[in-house]
Amino acid sequence: MTTSCAFPSRWFWTILCILSLVGSVSADEAARDSGADSGSRTTSFEEVKSGRFEKLDTNLGTLTSDSGVASVSARHAHSGRQALHLAGGEKTVVRLQLPDAVDTSGTLSFRAERWTQRAPFTFRVEKKAGDDWTEIFRGDDVVRVGRSFLSHVIVPINDDSVEQLRFTCTSPADAGILIDDLTIGPAEPQKVTNVEVVPFSLPALVGTQSSSLVKLKVEVTGILDPISIVELRARVDGAQQIESLQVGDGEPVELADNAVTTLRTSQPLEQGENIVWLRCRLREDANIDRQVGATIERVKFSNGETVELDSPIQRQRMGVAMRQHGDDDVHTYRIPGLATTNRGTLIGVYDIRHRSARDLPGDIDVGMSRSTDGGRTWEPMKTIIDMGGDPKWKYDGVGDPAVLVDRNTGTIWVAGTWSHGDRAWRGSGQGLAPEETGQLMLVRSDDDGLTWSQPINITEQIKRPQWCFILQGPGKGITMRDGTIVFAAQYQDPPEQQRLPHSTIIYSKDHGETWHVGTGAFDDTTEAQVVEVEPGVLMLNCRYNRDSARVVMTTRDMGKTWQKHPTSELALIEPQACMASLIDADREVGRDVGGWLLFSNPNSLRGRNHITIKASADRGSTWPKQHQVLLDEGNGAGYSCMTMIDEKTVGILYEGSQAQLTFQRIPLSDIVSPIGSTRNSPDE
After folding, report:
1. What's the number of CA atoms in the CB half-sphere (13 Å) around residue 349?
2. Which of 304, 307, 308, 157 is nearest to 227 (CA)?
3. Residues of CATH 2.60.120.260 domain(s) within the chain?
4. What DSSP state is assigned to residue 311?
């Protein structure tokens, strides 16, 4: 008996398309790995089996593992699906034996990713011609940490007698370096293959030497007869805010008020991808409510080539570099808090880390900056909490501040953690005395931040003796509808419970005369922020030390019991534990401005970058993409704190890529308006 089956034609064509795609990918990878088109040889490690190896034949030659642990990883790659992993440890060494057909008169290039920021880390490349090994690349401070193979390494070999290359890495165990797209190519004349303006988001700041306006990418092949950029024609928007322009690190050129300018320069180009920045210096009186922007219309090269570009002007938001490395002879400013007083004054608080960037214990005081014009200008810094400076007690450092305005009395409260000796996150112990445990200190101002009280110690009121540590937010606190003032806080369990931290709250119902503490909201949470989402209902948004997500808890009884919010660990991401800011716009200004909750943090899973403000119209249940504004895509320390300056303007103080503490004014409408309305409007 025979049967017939009609095979649906749509399935036939689907399978044919899949097979065609697979075939195309394999062909592309084969062409790339052989380097047939360019005279170069490449391996992306796609042609070999994954796993640890002692000897491995690749398209580029034979790899031999001389010491340590070398493997081909199937979990990480820059292109394709695999990459070479030198696991570090005391020393991992891999030699590459080159066949005679490989031309070593040119360059070695590869993509690299360092796996850890921890020391020690060394990475060297050597070449062997005859009996001698010669170092040709030292990547200790060059290869970057990051999951995207951020380093494109290009090393001149310039020696056609080279027989072997040697790669050596030292690092903490099981870390090391990843290498992909390993290529050796002949020496060829330089050629420009691509020129484009690349979008980016970085704030332009008053008070810095320069701010980025245009990111120009120029891709080049070859190393002979080097080419340079000799002239750029730029179109500038917001010229009245700009004092001067410069190309790369070149000399600043004063900018006239006209929109189009020609800049002569000399920017040498290297094989691979070149990034050239057009930068500006803002005028001291620049209006930070405006935006500045530019584009490149024409690029001239030293070989006589000219490239015309048709890219729109990219505008950057403006702000103020409120605190920078070296200001007032201070090494580092960190941990921002920000609040608006009842009189409309802005109070910014932060760590003054005098000697280094390290956390407590150390020579750290709490600083305060004050603005009476909405953050456009700031008064000189004041130190408002200083617990001493005796080196015997590790300078009696105090830090991690949080600021709170009592809306009923007008009193401004600032909380800080005092470490008398090593009584901070790791050294604080059980008990209540300064010699035993960290102390929670308060200062207050009753004259709008002009003068401040002596420190007030509330440790005995809020700390259980068996706990190892208790401290505030940091960031800011709130005044509830019934007049209760609340700081977010965190405490550590006793040693027998592994000092496990828990976010909680501390609060006062009598305007700061006495203080109380809640119970732990969730295991292994810290650095929370608090808002009142309904009358008497507090929401605690917490840093979570076990995942790249925010924990969100609520309480209806002032922290006696806690309930998990439906969005907890789901709605908001963070880069593997980082502080964030959360405010209720209505409660901040004391009237209905739409019921928005605002949240800010590094909107990233891979690093403290992409500082973003997000808005929720449903009390934190959703945070739609159309209500998000990116402020700073660069890498920084990542902490932030927001305030409503007035009913139309959000103020944010954050640890950004362009200054240690950046302040910006953001129209609320830019965050909450639908895409396509007034967001990113041009300077007028």
Report:
1. 32
2. 304
3. 42-185
4. -
Instruction: Round to the nearest angstrom and report the end-to-end CA distance of the chain.
Output: 83
One-letter amino acid at 136 equals I
Mean pLDDT of 189-201: 96
Residue found under tokens 């690093």: 607
Measured distance CA(650)–CA(648) in Å, rounded: 7
pTM for this entry: 0.84
> CA-CA distance, 645 to 338, in Å (whole number)?
10
Q: List the strands of the sheet with 332-340, edge to edge.
A: 332-340, 346-353, 364-371, 382-385
Cα–Cα nearest to 61, from 172, 207, 164, 200: 164
Give the pLDDT score at 674.
Answer: 63
Reduce the DSSP state of residue 12 to 3 states and report it. helix
Q: Which residues contact 84 (CB under 8 A, 6 or more apart)?
A: 45, 63, 70, 71, 72, 73, 94, 178, 179, 180, 182
In this structure, is the dihedral angle defined by the CA atoms of residues 600, 605, 610 and 615, taken in order, positive or negative? negative
Q: Tell which residue, 528, 622, 616, 536, has the closest CA to residue 577.
A: 528
Measured in degrees and rounded to the nearest 5, phi and psi for residue 18 equal: -60, -45
* Alpha-carbon distances, residue 131 vs 63, 127, 159, 441 (angstroms): 19, 10, 14, 67
| Contact between 551 and 542 (Cβ < 8 Å) | yes
Supply φ then ψ for residue 21, to 5 degrees: -65, -45
Fold classification of 191-320 is Immunoglobulin-like (2.60.40)
Tokens linked to 527: 């650095």
Burial 30-55 (b: 16+ CB within 10 A, else e): eebbebeeeebbbbbbbebeeeebee
- Please answer whether residues 182 and 151 qualify as being in contact, where contact means their C-beta atoms are separated by less than 8 angstroms: no
Active site residue ranges: 527
Instruction: Identify the residue whose tokens are 């690299």.
Output: 112
Beta strands in 386-499 (DSSP E): 397-405, 412-419, 439-445, 456-457, 469-472, 475-476, 478-479, 485-492
The partner residues of 584 in beta bridges, in order of sequence, read 597
CATH of 324-672, one of 1.10.287.620, 3.40.50.150, 2.60.40.10, 2.120.10.10: 2.120.10.10
In tens, the pLDDT along 337-349 reads 999 999 999 999 9
The CA distance from 154 to 614, in Å, is 40
Each residue's pLDDT tens digit, 408-448:
999 999 999 999 999 999 999 999 999 999 999 999 999 99
pLDDT at 162 over 60: yes
